[in-house]
Amino acid sequence: MATGSADCTARIFEVASGQELCRVTDCPGVNDVAFSPDGRWLGGSGKITRIWDATSGEELLGVSSDGCGRVAFSPDGRLLATTGSDKAVRVWDTDSGEEVAAFSHDRRTWDVAFGPDGRLLATSGRSGRRLLDDVVRVWRLREGADG
Known about the structure:
This protein has no helices and 14 strands. It is mainly β. It has a single domain, classed as Lipocalin (Beta Barrel), CATH 2.40.128.630. β13 and β14 form a beta hairpin. The strands form four sheets. Strands 4-5-6-7 form a four-stranded antiparallel sheet, with no helix packed on it. Strands 8-9-10-11 form a four-stranded antiparallel sheet, with no helix packed on it. A three-stranded antiparallel sheet has the order 1-2-3, with no helix packed on it.
């Protein structure tokens, strides 16, 4: 199990014992964490979106994301999607750190998830000013972005 915290730490615990296995510090305001599908990496969102080695805590990748809310790995682990404070959903290549796609809600974006084959991306967010203006959108990743 992994946790992120406003105290600038991300932690990985063994569920059965509750023992802390790994701690990553100096990661401003960790809003969300997600394991890669194979469990080797931990993605974390905050002022900077990062990917750490889930065993050692070594930072493998850091990308500026304009304040990130949620993170999700693609099923093959080659992409990381983030929601941002700028209404954008960005998709990053986990090897190079390059942005490979971006989508936008009209107002705030709440969450993001990949489809089972990694070709579709679902996002939830606000499209208008009223409470009932929340929407879910499904985006098709461009050819090549999903490997």
